[in-house]
């Protein structure tokens, strides 16, 4: 009986130890920040005002808290089973106009964004239901 208890205990312990490492943990790519592409950066020019920059690049991820003359657009992609890709564009303003554009990172290739298949409706389903009338839908009212 003691042998059976030892064998069962050892088997359970081995299963618990190997169970955690045998089947890897699911990871996914984690994009963060402003998506900055080479085309967007090429359109930036010194002399542009803040509204033109926001229209082209969107609102900045970081704005200097004590001096609003510097905007940072940062994009970071932490690949699940790979490395980290980071891009940064820093714009310096003087008198409401861009005076300096600094680039950091590799803008030559497009960022690899994974396709989220299996989550949410398919593109075909969305396109066929967008024009459908909402007959029996009543709004929620408090």
From TrEMBL:
Region annotation (Disordered) ranges: 105-142
Subcellular location as annotated: Cell outer membrane
Keywords tagged on the record:
Cell outer membrane, Lipoprotein, Membrane, Palmitate, Signal, Transmembrane, Transmembrane helix
Q: What residue ranges are annotated as transmembrane? A: 7-26
Q: What is its main location?
A: membrane
Membrane topology label: Lipid-anchor
Limits of the Outer membrane protein assembly factor BamE domain: 33-101
Q: Residue span of the signal peptide, if any? A: none
Report which superkingdom the organism of origin falls in: Bacteria
- Quaternary assembly: Part of the Bam complex.
Family statement drawn from the similarity comment of this UniProt entry: Belongs to the BamE family.
Free-text function comment from the UniProt entry: Part of the outer membrane protein assembly complex, which is involved in assembly and insertion of beta-barrel proteins into the outer membrane.
Q: What is this protein called?
A: Outer membrane protein assembly factor BamE
- Origin organism lineage: Bacteria, Pseudomonadati, Pseudomonadota, Gammaproteobacteria, Oceanospirillales
């Amino acid at each position: 009986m003691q042998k059976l208890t030892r064998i069962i205990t050892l088997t359970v312990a081995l299963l618990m130890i190997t169970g955690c490492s045998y089947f890897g943990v699911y990871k996914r790519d984690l994009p963060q920040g402003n998506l900055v592409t080479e085309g967007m950066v090429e359109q930036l020019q010194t002399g542009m005002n803040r509204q033109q920059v926001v229209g082209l690049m969107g609102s900045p991820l970081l704005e200097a808290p004590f001096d609003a003359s510097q905007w940072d657009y940062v994009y970071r992609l932490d690949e699940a089973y790979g490395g980290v890709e980071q891009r940064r564009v820093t714009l310096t303003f003087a008198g409401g106009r861009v005076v300096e554009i600094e680039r950091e990172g590799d803008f030559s290739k497009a960022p690899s964004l994974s396709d989220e298949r299996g989550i949410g409706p398919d593109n075909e389903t969305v396109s066929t239901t967008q024009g459908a009338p909402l007959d029996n839908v009543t709004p929620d009212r408090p």
